[in-house]
Design a protein that fits this description.
Low-confidence stretches: none
CATH superfamily: Jelly Rolls
CATH architecture: Sandwich
CATH topology: Jelly Rolls
Strand content: 25-35%
Length: about 180
């Protein structure tokens, strides 16, 4: 693990311990994120949608900020070991192939029908159609993407196995690889 990730974990560890003088109830409440306090963030991946509207997707963060490039979100539980969010993917929309070198990424389909695509750095390709309650864990170093192949919006849970994952990259021939964020 990198020194940066180690420092982030050390900084977040106090959030796992009950603060001095705080009641048990207040501590547990501070670790609870309720749906009523959430809003979908359509701007987290706006740089992709600005390139092509089919890339428009929305993130709702619960633990940490994930790897979308959102620097911070005070309305989440601090990430210590992983991040957790939900993602809305409109019908026909695409999450382009991207690469996390530093962390595993888990997709859990809660609603809808999504094609998950994976590609090795050597160009080997694999895909699966995932529906309600299907899960895939993509290892670090494997390109991954998704497309909503259903007629309605899809809802997925997304977990990344790092408290602050590196910003993902794209295949060198992908126009998204040349976009400044």
């Amino acid at each position: 693990m990198s020194h940066t990730v180690d420092a982030l974990i050390d900084a977040a560890k106090p959030s796992l311990q009950r603060p001095e003088g705080m009641s048990f109830g207040d501590w547990m409440t501070s670790r609870c994120v309720q749906r009523s306090t959430r809003k979908y963030d359509w701007s987290a991946l706006k740089f992709q949608a600005d390139h092509d509207p089919k890339y428009a997707r929305a993130q709702m963060r619960y633990i940490g900020t994930g790897a979308t490039g959102v620097a911070s979100d005070a309305n989440t539980v601090p990430a210590v070991h992983f991040t957790f969010s939900t993602m809305i993917i409109p019908a026909g929309h695409v999450g382009p192939l991207h690469l996390h070198e530093d962390t595993e990424e888990v997709f859990f389909v809660m609603r809808g029908k999504v094609r998950i695509m994976c590609e090795s750095k050597e160009g080997e390709y694999w895909e699966i159609e995932a529906g309600e309650r299907d899960l895939i864990s993509v290892p670090p170093g494997v390109y991954r993407g998704e497309v909503n192949i259903g007629d309605e919006e899809a809802l997925m849970c997304v977990m990344l196995g790092s408290p602050k994952p590196q910003t993902p990259t794209y295949r060198p021939d992908d126009p998204l690889s040349r976009i400044e964020r």
